[in-house]
Specification:
This protein is an alpha/beta fold and about 650 residues long. Helix content is about 40%, strand content about 25%.
């Protein structure tokens, strides 16, 4: 049996789009050892997912095609096969069985019209000649393995506590009924973390030798993310399977990988052991990815971005393979990457804030006085019964009180479902409240009439979580940014509106020439910049940023966070910054409020909440942050060695 389970040699994948040939993957080679994890990291468009699809034989054709390369897989039979030479029928013997995959979007990977039990049974029987009942029992066993279902004894103890009079046969029947109930649920009845566990259970149901996980934790809460990472590590070590883990976040790679391959524009620009990558990164792109992730143990003035560490020369000539030459790294046909060294001015921009500076800013904000005050706010969603009659309310916000000083960034953190977004929308009266008070500059927001509220909303804006769904796909971005100006009658001249739109686009780092383009023609980070420009159109005093960077690449995230800080200084803005990522919130915020199940867990200065959390819930949030440090890597390696 070979020590190498997967050996990819000189893989090249092209896509034919709009009469152009795009090199999605360009001449890459890597190996995966048995029982080890290879982390593939890079930004959107770097070729990570296309690489995984090529390994699985799932590159969509047309428009995609594998034009060159070999993908050798050794499943332990002594006869390694090249997947690139197999037909579809032969590939199906390996795909889903010996090689399995967890796709990036778990909700879109499951069929919404079938139960999870039906889909799991179907996947198991595709590769095993067993009955439906045997497949269902395997599905239940896999759901226990991923801890979506408790073990029989644990479930029986729970039921015994709830129903102490049950005899043993009835108890066993109730255990089986509850297990069956999980299988009979539909995807929309599960949370994001639960759906991801179902996908993992399906992926391991046929005991694969190699599991590919494509961005399995993107946009999940940090606590759910930590749980999924722990689960994958445990399954890998217990089953002895190999793992390819794909992500854009090197902090997560530090938590799970043994080896790392960094991809940029379809090429692997750096590869090696995970500890070596973090201790001595060689390529400027790797250095940039490591630097732009907010670190909770220090508060920087601004975050470095990838462009601060590298310059791209698009006129480069073809040099193959990757080679060092006179301080430059020459990477294939184009581009040539030049490494930049941070000068003294740049180092000052990215330096940590001192304790004296933080103390002085807190004193200034306190002297400014409150811009927004909230007292005992309550928001609930009705649960309706027959004939639409409200039976009860599910409380999303319960007796929440706080104040925000003028010019302050007030961080709002907590897991999905804790009430963060509902609270933000309630402040703008986008959802009805059930009680409490909201004051903005001394005005009772809940007591305003429609005309007064419309006037107030010029001063209060929101940047929603999903920029694509908050922009009209039929409206150009210039028209979208100008729309608030028209609605509020601020600037009536079309020429002056275009000038204002051009100015706002320039302030968020987009050229004025793009105002006639449509949302689908922009990347996620660019669309988020458009939404920020639209929020600034009316010169507001207060902006709510609702998970505005949660699904962005770390380098794009750094750019948007820096932009928000720069705009705050320029326009004297006050922010509520909502996120489930405490590292990002800490970088942005002066004070942090932690929410859990609609209630306030604690409020305090950002440094204090991070360094001295007062509640177990906050402690759990902080401990779940992927640190991405050498100390953490060494700790995980020691843990794995002790298990082995």
């Amino acid at each position: 049996m070979s020590d190498t389970i997967l050996n990819v040699k000189r893989l090249t994948v092209h896509f034919d789009v709009d009469n152009q040939q795009i090199q999605a993957v360009n001449d890459i080679s890597f190996q995966v050892k048995r029982g080890q994890t290879l982390g593939i990291v890079g930004e959107s468009g770097s070729g990570k997912s296309v690489t995984s699809l090529a390994v699985m034989g799932l590159v969509p054709s047309p428009p995609g095609r594998v034009v060159n390369g070999e993908i050798w897989f050794d499943d332990g039979t002594g006869n390694p096969v090249d997947f690139c030479t197999l037909g579809e029928t032969q590939l199906q013997q390996y795909r889903g069985g010996r090689v399995s995959m967890i796709f990036q979007e778990p909700m879109s990977s499951l069929n919404p019209v079938y139960t999870i039990g039906f889909q799991m049974v179907e996947a198991i029987r595709q590769h095993q000649a067993i009955s439906k009942e045997e497949a269902r029992q395997q599905a239940i066993a896999r759901l226990k393995e991923v801890k979506l279902l408790p073990a029989d004894a644990e479930m029986a103890a729970t039921i015994r506590a709830e129903l102490p009079r049950l005899d043993d046969p009835s108890l066993q029947a109730e255990v089986e009924r509850r297990q069956q109930a999980i299988l009979d649920r539909f995807p929309h009845e599960l949370s994001g973390g639960q759906i991801q566990r179902v996908m993992i259970a399906m992926a391991i149901s046929c005991n694969p030798d190699l599991l590919i996980a494509d961005e399995p934790t993107t946009a999940l809460d940090v606590t759910v993310q930590a749980t999924i990472l722990d689960l994958l590590r445990e399954l890998r070590d217990r089953r002895g399977m190999s793992l390819i883990f794909i992500t854009h976040d090197l902090g997560i790679i530090a938590e799970i990988a043994d080896q790392v391959a960094v991809m940029y524009q379809g090429r692997i620009v750096e590869a090696g052991p995970v500890w070596e990558m973090f201790a001595q990164p060689q390529h400027p792109y790797t250095k940039g990815l490591l630097a732009c992730r907010p670190q909770p143990n220090q508060r920087l003035r601004l975050l470095p971005t990838v462009s601060d560490f590298m310059a791209v020369d698009l006129a480069g000539t073809e040099v193959n393979p990757v080679a060092a030459n006179g301080g430059q790294l020459l990477i294939g046909a184009v581009p040539v990457i030049h490494e930049r060294v941070l000068d003294a001015e740049a180092q000052a921009r990215f330096a940590p804030l001192t304790e004296a500076e933080l103390t002085a800013r807190a004193a200034t904000l306190a002297a400014n006085g409150p811009l927004l005050a909230v007292e005992n706010l309550r928001v609930g969603y009705p649960v309706r019964g027959v004939f639409g009659k409200t039976q009860r309310h599910v409380m999303a916000v319960q007796d929440v009180s706080f104040q925000i000083q003028k010019g302050e960034t007030f961080g709002l953190v907590g897991e999905s479902g804790c009430g963060k977004t509902t609270l933000g929308r309630a402040l703008l009266r986008l959802v009805p409240t059930m009680g409490g008070k909201i004051w903005f500059e001394g005005r009772d927001v809940l007591g305003l009439g429609s005309s007064q509220l419309r006037q107030l909303r010029r001063d209060m804006q929101i940047v929603f979580q999903d920029p694509y769904s908050s922009l009209d796909p039929r409206m150009s971005i210039g028209a979208a940014i100008a729309e608030p100006l028209k609605i509020h009658g601020v600037i009536k001249s079309r020429r002056n509106q275009r000038e204002r739109v051009a100015y706002l686009l320039d302030r968020v780092g987009l050229p004025a020439s793009c105002m006639n383009r449509y949302p689908h023609e922009f990347s996620g980070g660019q669309r988020q910049r458009v939404c920020i420009a639209r929020a600034l159109a009316l010169n507001p005093k207060f902006i709510i940023c609702d998970e505005s960077v949660s699904a962005l690449d770390v380098s794009v995230q750094a750019q948007v966070l820096n932009l928000l800080k720069e705009l705050q200084a320029e326009f004297d803005l006050t922010y509520i910054f909502i996120s489930h990522d405490l590292a990002v919130v800490k970088f942005m915020s002066d004070r942090i409020m932690v929410m859990n199940q609609g209630r306030v867990e604690e409020i305090g200065p950002a440094e204090q909440v991070y360094r001295q959390p007062q509640t177990p819930y906050t402690q759990a949030l902080i401990s779940a942050i992927p640190v991405g440090s050498l100390d953490r890597i060494q700790e995980l390696q020691r843990d794995r060695a002790s298990v082995a």
